[in-house]
């Protein structure tokens, strides 16, 4: 960063950071033990929530400049928000982080290559569901055409960083273009309809994890929901919001609000904790936009995760759930737990499956290190966190690690691969497991 | 600024990775949990053992560089705020529980060990370390010893001081001394162990501690007594004690505190009453049941509108956790949360509660009160806004009056948070000039160059509560 950039960023911190929220942190330190990067960095306060808030405040107050160390501290944050539920003062850390990252990213000159990649990902790919489909199609071609086995055999992959090589192995077998395109936009409830739901498909969930989306729809039907899938919905914007691209996030939010607001539904359902946490915060994202603030709040008020809805509709009591005898454990999705406050529902649903023994893994509520694209851009810290996570996962002796978010699912698959446990342990999305337990898979 | 030659010598001792003088690295150790205190250290150093600390101290002593030992920075008296710059010393590498001795009932720990982690390890062996400061899930044993921390169980079991039986410490001249030991009795010379406990890092750097353990009580029960009258709650406290019952915990929370705590914890605390007492007893089942019943009766006679017994350990733990969050939860109300811990003999608790209320009215402030009523240690807390100078002045005056009242009632200016910088101006109220002179004589003898946490305990000429330097 140049001195001039620093000066502009500092000015922006002064103008834009919410001073009351910064002051709301009374520095009691109760958040420290919950922070994965504080613990993994060997208890460095620069990598703790309290430290990061102090840095943001110091920049806003003009005590220090937003130098590379400050940026590093913010970059290394997973954004898991585990510090929020343990904060007695109720500091909204996630909002502070998002604002700070946006200020830095919007005012810092990125290198040409970084600019190209950011533009490609944030503006050209994610806002366009068709292009994501096309990209997934390419991946499907890679997997089915023999190219994958060729790449693996010839050792071409060794040019990639180690965790990307492993990642390549754990990617699910993706659906064909035809499967992705030909899904109806309306589903009736099985039996008497109890509730009307609109389904938020998500961009990755509706391509790479299409099967999980289909399972989610089927579960909703079984639970007595009539389902609408609005065509015009877009990516939730979480990726943008967490990476300092707030303006694009707002545009996506508006598209989604428009797509859903005229549907007369009881719920808007998501099955990805990461998306859910962002969608439920649209009210905050658009709070300063008088045309949208109320509409955003209405949208967020209807939002629920699939497990919360199934739990509310007594799915686990009304549908017989059974699996072959096995131990299973659950890895919380940070955003589902910390932002959407859903932690009990998935566990209750899983425990209702006869034949299974549910074992709580130690620190299940702690981030797995996936955190959006964190496992790619901060792979060293991410893998350190994952390796510690796998120690606890192994002690649970579970045959299946259940998750509730695509990022966590891939990361757990990555962990299983790294520990050479594939074949013995399986990572699975809760929707897929529940549908299997309902005897439909 | 630390000269580059000295930086090189310090780096040679601890390694470059354990010496940080970056702006961000220093900024995050410029504060602790005390509102309105912030000052940049010149460097942050993380030694790995006592020998390294001895090396660091020698360099600092010959170059007049202040050293501020810091645990997790949760103290409430600005005890670890580096108000005079210098080096902040971290114990993140010295954080192990070294030994649990089940024959002597002791635990030996390094100063950076997290209090709750140590407690969990000890309890897994059926042993008990009672001091439980509210910050224990992140506070360190070293910090607890230096501040002589109390907690919810102080009434029955005492405070940190009552469990420290041996120390290893590095003095300002670099000497490493050992005090006490795994001994139930030891009168060999001055009791340096006790002198170091609560010394706030001003006499030496503690590098290892041996703590006394007791058997873990067999059972524990928890209840809440609800009141529509603050003084009735306070009077119940004195009555319980005078009836010769010593509960493990006897905590007081007033309505404003209950409301914010419930906002955070959402466990169904009663927010429509003026005050509650959180009461616990532990020990053999029959004793616990008898005491709990007696206390419930006393509370009712003294005006409790209802008494609710926790139905499970989970429910009890939720109540304790909620109580521990009280101070930070009060930070929800306004940007700056000023709290004190004036303490009076427990027979005077009702008078103190009344005085706090009168003083808060007098200065037009809203003071929320919670605390360890059973041991006379209250935490009147004032949600304020540091940006409002007029309000801050009124807060200042109100707390001065609270201190004076506490002393009048035979109490003290701080029960468990320590003097630090924050209460240094008031220390004379408690000790008198002669008392301060005697303490200074000890300080000068052990740290003649005043490098160990300077500016703490003893006040400078003028009072300055807001210290922000670049």
TrEMBL record, chain A:
GO terms for molecular function: 4 iron, 4 sulfur cluster binding; glycolate dehydrogenase activity; metal ion binding. Its EC number is 1.1.99.14. It comes from the Bacteria. It catalyses: glycolate + A = glyoxylate + AH2; (R)-lactate + A = pyruvate + AH2. Keywords: 4Fe-4S, Electron transport, Iron, Iron-sulfur, Metal-binding, Repeat, Transport. Residues 13-45, 68-91 form the 4Fe-4S ferredoxin-type domain. Binds 2 [4Fe-4S] clusters. It is an enzyme of class 1 (oxidoreductase). Its cofactor is [4Fe-4S] cluster. Pfam families: CCG, Fer4_8. Transmembrane segments: none annotated. Component of a complex that catalyzes the oxidation of glycolate to glyoxylate. PANTHER family: GLYCOLATE OXIDASE IRON-SULFUR SUBUNIT. This is Glycolate oxidase iron-sulfur subunit. It comes from Cytobacillus oceanisediminis.
From TrEMBL, chain B:
Residues 37-216 form the FAD-binding PCMH-type domain. It holds the Pfam family FAD_binding_4. InterPro entries: FAD-bd_oxidored_4_C (IPR004113), FAD-bd_PCMH (IPR016166), FAD-bd_PCMH-like_sf (IPR036318), FAD-bd_PCMH_sub2 (IPR016169), FAD-linked_Oxase-like_C (IPR016164), FAD-linked_OxidoTrans_Type4 (IPR051914), GlcD (IPR004490), Oxid_FAD_bind_N (IPR006094). Keywords: FAD, Flavoprotein, Oxidoreductase. It comes from the Bacteria. GO terms for cellular component: glycolate oxidase complex. GO terms for molecular function: (S)-2-hydroxy-acid oxidase activity; FAD binding. Its cofactor is FAD. Belongs to the FAD-binding oxidoreductase/transferase type 4 family. This is Glycolate oxidase. It comes from Cytobacillus oceanisediminis.
């Amino acid at each position: 960063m140049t001195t001039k950039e620093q000066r502009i960023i500092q000015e922006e911190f002064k103008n834009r950071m919410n001073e009351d929220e910064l002051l709301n942190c009374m520095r009691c330190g109760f958040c420290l033990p919950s922070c994965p990067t504080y613990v993994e960095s060997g208890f460095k306060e620069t990598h703790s929530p309290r430290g990061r808030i102090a840095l943001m405040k110091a920049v806003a107050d003009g005590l220090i400049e937003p130098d590379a160390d400050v940026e590093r501290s913010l970059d290394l944050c997973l954004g898991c928000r585990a510090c929020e539920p343990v904060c007695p003062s109720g500091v909204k850390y996630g909002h502070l982080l998002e604002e700070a990252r946006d200020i830095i990213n919007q005012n810092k000159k990125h290198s040409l290559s970084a600019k190209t990649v950011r533009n490609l990902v944030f503006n050209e790919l994610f806002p366009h569901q068709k292009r994501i489909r096309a990209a997934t199609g390419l991946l499907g071609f890679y997997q089915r055409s023999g190219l994958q086995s060729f790449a693996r055999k010839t050792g071409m992959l060794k040019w990639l960083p180690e965790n990307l090589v492993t990642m390549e192995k754990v990617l699910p077998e993706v659906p064909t273009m035809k499967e992705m395109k030909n899904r109806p936009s309306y589903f009736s409830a099985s039996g008497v309809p109890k509730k009307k739901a609109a389904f938020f498909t998500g961009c990755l969930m509706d391509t790479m994890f299409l099967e999980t989306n289909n399972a989610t729809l089927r579960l909703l039907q079984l639970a007595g929901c009539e389902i609408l899938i609005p065509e015009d919905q877009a990516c939730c914007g979480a990726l943008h919001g967490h990476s300092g691209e707030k303006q694009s996030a707002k545009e996506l939010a508006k598209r989604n609000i428009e797509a859903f607001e005229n549907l007369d539904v009881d719920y808007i359902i998501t099955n990805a904790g990461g998306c859910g946490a962002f969608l439920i915060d649209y009210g905050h994202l658009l709070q300063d936009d008088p045309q949208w603030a109320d509409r955003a709040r209405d949208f967020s008020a209807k939002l629920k995760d699939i497990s919360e809805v199934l739990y509310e509709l007594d799915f686990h009591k009304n549908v017989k759930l059974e699996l072959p005898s096995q131990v299973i454990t659950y890895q919380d999705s940070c955003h589902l737990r910390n932002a959407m406050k859903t932690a009990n529902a998935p566990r209750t649903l899983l425990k209702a499956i006869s034949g299974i023994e549910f074992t709580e893994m130690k620190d299940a509520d702690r981030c797995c290190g996936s955190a959006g694209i964190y496992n790619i851009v901060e792979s060293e810290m991410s893998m350190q966190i994952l390796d510690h996570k796998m120690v606890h996962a192994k002690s649970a002796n579970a045959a299946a690690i259940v998750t509730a978010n695509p990022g966590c699912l891939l990361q757990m698959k990555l962990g299983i691969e790294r520990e050479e446990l594939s074949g013995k342990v399986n990572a699975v999305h809760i929707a897929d497991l529940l549908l299997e337990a309902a005897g439909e898979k | 600024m630390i000269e580059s030659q000295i930086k090189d010598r310090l780096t040679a001792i601890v390694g470059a990775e354990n010496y940080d003088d970056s702006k961000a690295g220093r900024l995050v150790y410029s504060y602790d949990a005390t509102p309105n205190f912030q000052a940049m250290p010149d460097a942050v150093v993380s030694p790995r053992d006592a020998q390294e600390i001895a090396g660091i101290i020698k360099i600092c002593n010959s170059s007049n560089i202040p050293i501020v030992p810091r645990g997790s920075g949760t103290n409430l008296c600005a005890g670890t705020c580096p108000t005079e710059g210098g080096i902040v010393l971290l114990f993140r590498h010295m954080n192990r529980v070294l030994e649990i001795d089940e024959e002597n009932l002791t635990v030996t720990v390094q100063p950076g060990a997290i209090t709750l982690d140590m407690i969990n390890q000890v309890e897994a062996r059926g042993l008990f370390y009672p001091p439980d400061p509210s910050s224990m899930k992140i506070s360190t044993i070293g910090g607890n010893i230096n501040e002589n921390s109390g907690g919810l169980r102080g009434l029955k079991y005492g405070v940190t001081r009552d469990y420290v039986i041996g120390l290893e410490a590095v003095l300002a001249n670099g000497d490493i001394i050992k005090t006490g030991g795994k001994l139930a009795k030891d009168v060999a010379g001055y009791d340096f162990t006790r002198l170091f406990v609560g010394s706030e890092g001003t006499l030496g750097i503690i590098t290892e501690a041996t703590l006394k353990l007791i058997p873990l009580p067999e059972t524990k029960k928890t209840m809440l007594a609800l009141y529509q009258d603050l003084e009735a709650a306070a009077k119940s406290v004195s009555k319980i004690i005078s009836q010769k019952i010593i509960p493990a915990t006897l905590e007081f929370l007033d309505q404003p505190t209950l409301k914010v705590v419930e906002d955070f914890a959402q466990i169904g605390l009663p927010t429509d009453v003026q005050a509650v007492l959180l009461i616990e007893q532990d020990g053999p089942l029959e004793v616990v049941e008898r005491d709990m019943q007696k206390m419930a009766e006393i509370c009712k006679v003294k005006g409790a509108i209802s008494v609710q017994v926790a139905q499970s350990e989970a429910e009890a733990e939720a109540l304790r956790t909620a109580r521990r969050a009280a101070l930070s939860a009060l930070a929800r109300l306004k940007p700056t949360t000023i709290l004190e811990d004036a303490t009076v003999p427990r027979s005077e608790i009702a008078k103190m509660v009344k005085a706090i209320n009168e003083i808060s009215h007098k200065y037009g402030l809203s003071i929320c009160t919670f605390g360890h009523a059973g041991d006379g240690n209250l935490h009147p807390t004032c949600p304020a806004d540091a940006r409002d100078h007029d309000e801050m002045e009124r807060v200042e005056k109100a707390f001065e009056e609270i201190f004076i009242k506490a002393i009048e009632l035979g109490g003290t200016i701080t029960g468990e948070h320590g003097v630090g910088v924050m209460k240094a101006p008031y220390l004379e109220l408690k000790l008198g000039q002669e008392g301060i002179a005697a303490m200074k004589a000890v300080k000068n003898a052990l740290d003649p160059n005043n490098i160990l946490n300077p500016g703490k305990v003893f006040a400078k000429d003028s009072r300055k509560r807001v210290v922000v330097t670049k």
